[in-house]
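Predict structure. Chain length: 565.
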Amino acid sequence: MMKKLRFETLELLSRRERKARKIEFHPQLTVIKGANDVGKSSVIKSLYWAFGASSSKIHSAWTNANIKALITFTIDGVRYRILRDHTTFGIFDTDGKLLLVTNQITKELSPFLGQLLDFKLVLSNRNTGKPEIPSPAYAFLPFYLDQDSGWTKPLDSFANLSQYADFRKTLLEFHTGILPNEYYELEADKRRLQLNQRELEADRRVVRRAIERFRLEASFDGLELSIDGHEQAIESLLSRLKKVREVRQSRAGKLSEILDQRMIIEQQMRVVRISIAELEKDVKFSGDLPEEVFCPTCGTVHHNDFANRYSIIDDREACFEFLTDARQKVVALTSQALQAELEIHDVDRTLKEIQLFLDAKKGDVSLFDVIESRGQHIASDIFKGQLEDLDEQVAELLGEIEKINENLKKLKDKERHEEIVKYYSDFVIDYLGRLDVTNYNVDEITKIPAKISETGSDLPRALLAYFLAILQTIHQYSTSLFAPIVVDSPNQQDQDDTNVGAIIDLIIAARPDDAQMILGTVSLYDRTILDGKVIEFTEKLSVLQSNEFANVAASMQPYMDQLTA
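Prediction complete.
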């Protein structure tokens, strides 16, 4: 059954500017309206930024404000929250309990959200070739028309989409239900098995080469069939052992430095947390004092005005900023420490191997006799046993892959495919007509994915028809999720009054009854919103408000505390 995602509230906070804003979304239709440069697009982009999906362009003033975002959302009516601060993400359940904290989008955030949203699409990473659940941008891509890049090319509303080659066809087949979730889960299993198969076959090639050479180099590296050569091999290994120990000492020193740095930062964080607690007491104490305080010791009257109380609050906020930055450093140093430990383990394995060789060589006579009389037979038996074991493992994997291929064929239902494409094509032809786009290639536009060849003012209208037709198809056939429909700045390429009116009418009319829509626009062009709400931004370059800072900061603080705990 398809999961339904809805946005309830978006809270934005800038401690740097001491401004904030809370936006409550209507469950059906929310129109964010206002002139240019009032922050409509920045707010809309923040919805996806909070989920780890960045738009292609973000205004520098918005970036410089160091925004933190907290979104309250529901999945099939179950409430969650996601908080993003810099590169750290926190996901919380309905009771505010922390479920995940991470700064790894692809490795940790994507699989977690994929499980919540039933987003099981798997793509092969262009660089590693390994299958993985792609970033949240790919879950939201069919539901978002971005102001900057979404109106020029289909499925292009987010940045950094090039990590997967030719993803659009696969993405649309997934979202439209042409191939269901189960298909991609099986595909992921198949790719993992194929990776294991390639590794086993590589091992098998190594063993076969050893059998062909059969001079025992693979099993008894450095051993010679003469006493003089045997002694020379020992000297060589002793020299190698010394060098490897020097490498280990160097890497151990590096690890020690990293751990020292992490300990210092953690000590600083503990001090800062204590400072925060003391500053909070100071804020409360100063709030209880009169505006003028007489000192009986020196006879001076001290002013307890807003400026003095503000400086205490500012110090407290600076402490929160330090904790956030310090946590990022601790995470980075922890990662470096882990890598250093892995490098030390690698060296330790090498040392162990060398020591084993030396231990074997200390029994010169018996080892010499064994190698001379039975060495080749023993090595042959070992290698053949390894080869037989590898052959069995590869055969077992091939059998599992064949079973998956049979199931994949069953899920590739030609009739279902044709039904879905027909459903989509009826909508796209209808929408093109309602938007007065007439000069199009029917064969190109009625495919999934379609080819959009229009230019000029026809291009954004053709893209909108395509976008809305795909949404109708997803709503009808998807086995994954349906996210809020977000359309930003639909009046592209200077449309005339008739066309822009038709665009607004179609965007509102094409929303499925149980879907949520967010529309950002300069004007509604005399259209009336019946089942929804209109939020109007009026202040240029200042969508965040000073008078909302205290409430939003207090709302976010319990979640911020859990990220820095």
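Summary: Confidence is low (pLDDT under 50) at residues 215-229, 362-374.
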